[in-house]
Amino acid sequence: MKPPPVIGIAGGIGSGKSTVAGALQDAGCLLYDADAEVARLYERDDVLATLRRWWGPEVAPDGEGLDRARVAGIIFDDPAQRERLENYLFPLLADERAALIRRAAEEHAPAVVIDAPLLYEAGLDAECDAVIFVDTPRDERLRRLRDRSGWDAGELDRREKAQLPLDAKRERADYTVNGSGSRADLAREARRLLEDVLNRPAG
User: Fold this and answer.
1) Nearest to residue 115, comparing CAs of 3, 2, 23?
2) Using one digit for the tens of pLDDT, what is the confidence trace for 104-162?
3) If you placed Cys at 5, which of 30, 85, 129, 153 could pair as Cys (CB 3.0 to 4.6 Å)?
């Protein structure tokens, strides 16, 4: 059974990647949401036990689940700890992606969409037949993040330093969409690009 194409979504934090991914999901694609998958891993007893062993019981107090803010403070301040966590989680996430691609083939979904903040950093672009870069000005992204999460410019900068520079992501992508328009405009462009990917010659 031939697997469907895999489309990756890239862009800066707050650029509108999830809007593009959601539009493709509405068009029948199966969505791999890396943040949601990581959140599910963080609920697993074996994962929590490992993180307590590394960083102490305060990262996941009994009965309270993971203190994600504490973990974020650890991994964004110490690249070695971030790499340690990624090396632990990435193989677990790869199993989930493989299962989703198999299910997409069985269900004849038009494509699988990977919405992952670390698409390039984790090497997930190698699994993609096409990558869409959502290009949104920094000021607009910061406005969204202030409204959504209360972040300031320093928090945005701190987190983006842990990622590949935006210019490099843009250059490596197959398509670029303007993420500063309305959600309807972004969804319309996403569906147009899906048709383009599906109609590209094989190979």
Assistant:
1) 23
2) 999 999 999 999 988 998 899 999 999 999 999 999 989 989 888 888 888 888 888 87
3) 129
Q: Name 113's bridge partners.
A: 7, 31
8 Å CB contact between 175 and 132: yes
Do 158 and 76 touch, CB atoms closer than 8 A?
Answer: yes
Beta strands in the chain (DSSP E): 6-11, 30-33, 112-115, 130-135, 175-178
For residue 31, the tally of other CB atoms under 10 A from its CB is 20
Q: What is the 3-state secondary structure (H, E, C) of 106-134?
A: HHCCCCEEEECCCCCCCCHHHHCCEEEEE
DSSP class of residue 58 equals G
Q: How many residues does the chain have?
A: 203
Q: What are phi and psi of 164, to 5 degrees?
A: -60, 140
CA triple 41-47-51, angle to 5 deg: 125
Residue 157, CA distances (Å) to 18, 94, 177 in order: 20, 28, 23
Query: Which residues on adjacent β-strands are paired with residue 175?
Result: 132
How do 112-115 and 175-178 pair as beta strands?
A: unpaired
Where on the phi/psi map is residue 37: left (φ > 0), alpha (ψ -120 to 50), or beta? alpha
Instruction: Enter the DSSP assignment of 64.
Output: T
Q: How far apart are CA 42 and CA 39, in angstroms?
A: 5
* Type of residue found at 97: R
Kindly state the average pLDDT of the residues 46-69: 92
